[in-house]
Amino acid sequence: MTAARKEDEVMELARRRGFIWAAFEIYGGASGFFDYGPLGAALKRKIENLWREFYTLGEGFYEIETTTIGIRDVFDASGHLACFMDKMVECKRCRSLFRADHVGGRCPDCGGELSEPQDFNLMFKTRIGAVTGAEGGERGRGEAYLRPETAQGMFVNFPRLLRFHRNKLPFGIIQIGRAYRNEISPRQGIIRLREFTLAEAEVFVLPHEKNKHPRFHEVEGVVMRLKPNYTDEEIEITVGEAVERKIIAHEYLGYHMARVQQFLEKIGIPVGRLRFRQHGRDEMAHYAEDCWDAEFLSERFGWVEIVGIADRGDYDLSAHSRKAKVDMSVPVAAEDAPEGAETKERVFPHVIEPSYGIDRIVYALLESSFHKEEVRGEVRRVLRFKRCVAPVEVAVLPLLNRKELVDKAREVFRLVRSHGIFAEYDASGSIGRRYRRQDEIGTPYCITIDYETLENDTVTIRDRDSMRQVRVRIAELPAKLKGDVESMFG
Ligand code: AMP
After folding, report:
1. Is 147 in the pocket of ligand 1 (CB under 6 A)?
2. Are the C-beta atoms of residues 197 and 359 closer than 8 Å to each other?
3. pTM score, two decimals?
4. pLDDT for 67-77, tens place per residue?
């Protein structure tokens, strides 16, 4: 199967089965905008909920929710107004626009000559409140922007967040929500969107404590594939060794990179298709001191950034302090002071930020879960989702569409749902066709009600990956499904 064909097949399946649809499709769509259908929304929600748990339960971080529209001052201070730019070129013949770093010497559409690159700010601009024609032209009045990252909402609330945490550092805050970037010419499906979902954690830590993370020992043995910016080679190394050898600058960065890998692995992204690439000095975002991208090796697009892990230093807090004239520095208590430093010195906390692009993770999961095989002369397409992300966990199927089987199947369907397991009921078409449909949407288990069910109250559970079936008593079904159903299939 060629790479391009596979992507087409995955996206075709995603469209047909209700995962991802082009937005405004009946009006011809608009590039960079996609909607999630019923199964896509369920898949995405599950990823988001696992992510939320990973950081709240796992790290003890609190979640907040801030506005998606920001006033001008915020993005003036954050540097996004001046720096959040991509270089754009225009074809002099067909007038198509391209991101300069995505094209070579000539227009990829018509071969025409390209203009000199010029800066294009990626933020969507809007206005707050009613404006008259005269005010509309006036700079700054009601001027606002759709947020290009969720992070700023956490920075501008820092004084309140610090008080909430009883003035104690370090602490972490998370946020999941929409971000907006007016990408110049998005042509890569849900990889490059103009409206997308970010899941971001901002970890506030005193600068001299960045190299002593209290839980570093938990991750120091995690093996990662790194591509540091001083070499073209990739290295496989434990996080502990990478920090010790200063390939990764400090424990906080190393700790959070390892956690990123663990999260991606947990939801089913194969670690063999992940690497961490350090940004070159010239590539770093305007706010970053250091930055590593977790990249997924896509069969279709090559290496794609799915999570960015940045050390933002004190860039944001000091910038907002200056602009808002609110001092966001914190006193360094005597016992915490770096050696030789004055006591009562004030410093700005530094920020370590893992920033996950949820839509790209959805794509990576779809692509890496997709398998196609021949079974008894027929093509079987399967999404091998882990159960924790599968949109439908269990399908309940009467063997035949006969009243006595349908009634019993509906009863089992209700039973399963009443135990908190999301299930789908399907009675249409041959049983083989229904299994194939469930395979295609990644349902891990199918429960079939047949004539033996009516005799002895047992059903079969079919495992998606091995296609094996075992019989269980209906009375034991909920406990089996909630327990170690996997072990039943070896
Ligand atoms: P960044 O702040 O640029 O490092 O972006 C953080 C994460 O957001 C990246 O790792 C991507 O996964 C995701 N991302 C950035 N831009 C887009 C986009 N245009 N469409 C979809 N996801 C994006």
Report:
1. no
2. yes
3. 0.95
4. 999 999 999 99
